[in-house]
Design brief:
Strand 4, helix 5 and strand 5 form a beta-alpha-beta unit. The chain is an alpha/beta fold. A 7-stranded parallel beta sheet has the order 3-2-1-4-5-6-7, sandwiched between helices.
Length: about 325
Amino acid sequence: MDSVKAGMTTVWLVPAVVVVTAGVFYLYSLILQLLNKTALRNKVVLITDSASALGKECAKVFHKRGARLILCGKNWEKLEALAEQLANESDPTLTFPPKLVELDFSDMKSMPDVVSDVLDCYGCVDVLIFNSSMKVKAPVQTLSLEMDKLVMDANYFGPITLAKGVLPSMITRRSGHIILVNSIQGKLTVPFRTTYAASKHAVQAFFDCLRAEVQEYGISVSTLSHTFIKAAPSAKQTPTTNSILSVLTRQKPHGVSPEEMAGELLKTLSSKKNEIIMAHSISKAAIYARSIFPNFFFAVMAAGVRSTAAMEHVQ
């Protein structure tokens, strides 16, 4: 009789645990959604490359949630067009008109003026999102030192100069969140991208160090590493290959969408997670292999170079 009662208790207990667990997760998701909606209200958010696919998507998402946007970019006409689009698609009683600042990280001489213009907008920055990048792909012997310096300015010296410019106001207010949207090549090197990978490693290291330095001031630093952000489909698509190198630089088969990235950034503002990696399992495995089995990783990379060279020779 006791065994029957125990069996009946078990039969009821298991579904009850499942229901309670599901309820807890549901409430947790509701709380996260509420935090996501309120985390940006009245916050000053700067987006460095607002005219890019990811920049536009972030601007739309953050603007609807009541953020005070500072839209930055090299093309003033595109910034004005984006600001007008945001104004037309939103309720002016619930949103703020974006501020515009011309920003070109490759022009280091302009950076002091840029920092001044940024701080003149609202006097401070609550959220600083670095999503701009200059890409270059070529054998190392074909790249000039001038190109190396240009890429380093755009991908490293420019971003850290802006970060240093707004950091004192964050420290004074003892709050702020800096998010670096960085390539997976800040953690994983791929041949024919020496200068690009070097710039991405440098900026990754800078913000990893900065995270520890500013934690005592209540400032969060997050890095989001991805393979590539897929653009809108075009009529002319470049055929993909199945070489080792191409596999390591792909995010799933079609890349990660700007919508996915913007959603992840929104969650990061609430969770304040230090590091996010948006990549397929092969890329993640390669990161661990580089640390645990470096000789094997280097051999695979060299094999990939030989395979690529052989394919080009055949073509």
